[in-house]
Amino acid sequence: MIRFLTAGESHGKVLVTIVEGFPSNMPISSDYINSHLKRRQSGFGRNVRMKIESDTVQILSGIRFGKTIGSPISLLIENNDWANWRDVMNVDQKSADVKKITIPRPGHADLVGVTKYNFDDIRNSIERSSARETAVRVAAGSIARKFLEHFGIYIGSFVESIGGIYSTNDYFSQLLQNKNLFEKSGWSASIKADKSSVRVLDQKQEKKIISKIKTVKKSGDTLGGTFITVATGVPVGLGSFMQFDRKLDADIAFHFMSINAVKGVEIGSGFYSAEQPGSQIHDEITIDKNNFNRKSNNAGGIEGGISNGLPIIVRAAMKPISTLAKPLESVDLSSMKKVSSRYERSDFTAVPSCAVIAESMLAWVVAKHFLIKFGGDSIEETEDNYTSFTKKSINRIRKGFKK
Ligand SMILES: Cc1cc2nc3c(=O)[nH]c(=O)nc-3n(C[C@H](O)[C@H](O)[C@H](O)COP(=O)(O)O)c2cc1C
Fold first, then answer.
1. How big, in percent rounded to 5, are the helix, strand and coil portions of the chain?
2. Mean pLDDT, the chain, integer
């Protein structure tokens, strides 16, 4: 069973994670992790913080000569901006000129945080609830992603909409129709999306979105959006219906909902399927040379909590950023009077980054269930178990039931 924990505040000195449970002898490099960290930082609509930070991982343990050695992998990312926040984030003592934050932002974790943890300074809530933490999640997810690539499993994503602007080309429906949209590799979706500053696949849509972000920026507002994440090459049999907490779709939904500002997750045709008759939704089963396939992929690659061998398709919704330059109503906790909410440096939209974070979460969940099924202390042992299942065990059902 793989696991990871993260630590670190948004403007603290560093972010860290300990990743545990991956087999030995698996190649991994800082460059590989950094390439995904860079992807997370990009996207039109982010604030200047992303120009200050240039996220670079330091691998502190668990890797020797470019390969895992089975021990816990610890990863560290420095916050460059900490240099400007030394007093505010001082570990030992408070300087007299550090002011408390007393006005909570609607839609953020400010008010619930101070209420729950009995803080008298909203800064204590802001620091850990910030999505800055997702940088180390992407680092941890990159280990999972590298592991999956060894078995031909590729993860990618693209932004479907920002501020309600969609492409006229319905890529999502094409995916559900089981069309070979990304040359059979989820990663090729990301290769295409990464060429766009808002990670969309359609240039006309890109122009409209950029213009909308500019307008919204001027008016002090923010935008959310939707994005699609895809995993290809996932074998049949990950997850289980034998217990509720072993279901693959349930675990994916949990990990996606854990991403800051994600408010909705659908697997396959999700909410749309609720409006259609069964005959239009359930993926008909076909057979070709004793290989099963489906005419469509409305189930998004998962049936009964188990991967069915088709691409896993997850659609998610991110709400608009809650820190607005155009103030909303709030209450000053020092005077308990009605005031306008506070503004601090903030993104205008972060849907492109959110999609990259979601890739890491999907990689994590798929790697977790892959290792639950196939296990192995070394990558060679995992390979043996995987090959035995995909080459031998699966063939039993391909021959059909015994007469
Ligand atoms: C990549 C990314 C960047 C974000 N940037 C900001 C930001 O600059 N300002 C802000 O108010 N919220 C930002 N958010 C959203 C908040 O972190 C989030 O709304 C907050 O933690 C409250 O959690 P909730 O929205 O899940 O309830 C960002 C989220 C993500 C995924």
1. 35, 20, 40
2. 95
Beta-carbon count within 10 A of 362 CB? 27
13 CA to middle of ligand 1, Å?
A: 20
Q: How much distance in Å is there from the Cα of 130 to the middle of ligand 1?
A: 6
Ordered DSSP codes for 68-107: E-SSPEEEEEE-GGGGG-TTTT-SS---TTPPPP--PPTT
CA–CA distance, 40 with 56 (Å, rounded to integer) = 12
Q: Give the confidence band of 183 by pLDDT, cuts at 50, 70, 90.
A: low
* Ligand 1: nearest atom to the Cα of 49: 8
Ligand 1 atom index nearest CA of 262: 26
Token pair listed for 48? 């200047």
* Residue ranges around ligand 1 (CB below 6 Å): 47, 108-109, 129-131, 134, 259-261, 319, 321-323, 346-347, 350, 353-354, 357
pTM of the model: 0.97
Whole-number Å distance, alpha carbon 108 to ligand 1 midpoint, is 7
